[in-house]
Write a structure and sequence with these properties.
Chitinase A, domain 3, 4 domains, four-stranded antiparallel β-sheet, 21 helices, 20 strands
Amino acid sequence: MFLFERLRKGTKVILWITVFAFVGFIFLVWGMDIQRSSGPNPTVIGTVNGQRIPTSYYRQILANAYEQLRRDRGGSVSESDELRLRQMAWDRVVNETLIAQEIQRRRISVSDSELEYYIRHSPPAEVAESPAFQTDGKFDPVKYRQILQNPAYDLTGLEAIVRTTIPVRKLEELVASSAKVSNNEVRAYFERSNEKVDFSFVITRPVDFTVEPESISEEELRAFYEANSEDFRIPEAANLRYVRIQKEPSAQDESQVLGAANDICREARSGTDFAELASAFSQGPEAENGGDIGRLLPRESIPPAQRDVAFSLEPGQVSSPLRDTRGFVIIRLEEKRLDEGVEKVRFRRIFLPVEPSAQTLGEFQAKVQEIRDKSSRMALQEVAQEMGLELKESGTFYKGGLSPILPNNEAAEDFPFKNKLGTISQPIETRRGWYFLEVYQKEASYVPGFENAEPDVRRAVVAAEKERLAREKIESMIGLMSQGMSFEKTAEEASLEVKRATAIGKLDPIPGAGRQAAVTGAAFALSPGKTSSVLEGEGGFFLVRLDRRVPLDEELYVSQKDQIRFQLMQQKRMIAISLWLEKMRNAAKIEDYRAEILGF
């Protein structure tokens, strides 16, 4: 076909996209024979129905996800984020494998005419998001068609990408074909999203009541303790010993990054556009903006390693590479001026992180394997002494709490409570390094005696008494209203202020009370003029009277119903696909070797 011949014969190559997602992996799956695994090996992170998932591919997906999150947040990623990213990366490679297997099983194919149609009229998201086909950050169909028609460009890979995504689209259509949206569903969604009410309410907050701790007798304290002793139980506790192999770049790693930074610096000083260099090489959050920080900054708002140099430059000058906490920074000053009497600067910067190279990580991994081998036959203290490692203690922490070593790391937090004294963990890998844990000390859960628990018991009794007083005050209104007194009059008798909430939607915050799902939900359930029972909300007790339901805007419904139908259809399609994937996963034989291979 003419288009494909042009795509194959062009001479100028556009480096317009990096396909690291399903598009690349599906070729690997389609080209692999199903092999029954005889057990874990370092190159295989797991299997799906006997089909091996390469460790390198899982690491690639995880690294890309980590880097994207780091860029989005403009900084470091927490341990809890790491745990979430690991599971997301695993779910992704498993789902990709299942999808590829199902495409093969159903023998879903792509004709050349389909391929050409999709290339011309419906490029996949990976293509539409490529900068080569965008104008002002948005996909430009005109530019896309011009490039397709230009014989000077070689779009090698576009055909392969589209040929791979079409079967996935076809499978999605088959799986989601049962999704339908009725007119009643569209109307119900509009009403839920746009229905609003006006209501009146009063609130009593326990914090507004005073209870003197000394006013509570020992007899009352003991009675409360006896009735609620389990509330004062001290959970199981543990203390860990551990060693850490920290992921630190070597001197050679730093030298290589410095060399690259010097090369970029020379390019910038020789006239190469700094913004282009930043877009191409910087790994900082401003890279997408050509390194531009975007605003004038005073001295104190600039990192210490950069501020003196930034203020010493003149506009247009480029600094030498600066060593910052995480890597090297090159600065080009754009503007320097007084702003409200304060000297400020705006600059572009290129950030190159200094991280362990593959060679350095390989050396660390060899040491981790050595610890792993030795710890299978020796205590961790002996391993540390033999290998010259520092042995540390975590300090006591409780079951269900955060680990002092690895906060929000489930493997570290659960390990001492699922294993016996002396047990040594498999290596636990994080972004900072590898950890080996040993259960050093354990203490069983227990309920302390009254004397030891007395301060906590007193605080609990005070809190319970404040809640009782707050509830009783608002309940007094219900008693008065049952005698025919109005909402406003009963509030006045109880010395409570009646507050008004107008045009409140189901997800809207209540003025003066914040988001109160239970309270708002109760208001929507009432008939106009009716009053709720006592409602326990966040931070207090409420009594609500519905004043009126705000009429729906029918013109708004007419203008939105097609969009609502589309949104509901997309949701139903996603649910159908998710349920299908869940069913496929439940029926599949999935082997996860991450704990053995990577320590998590």
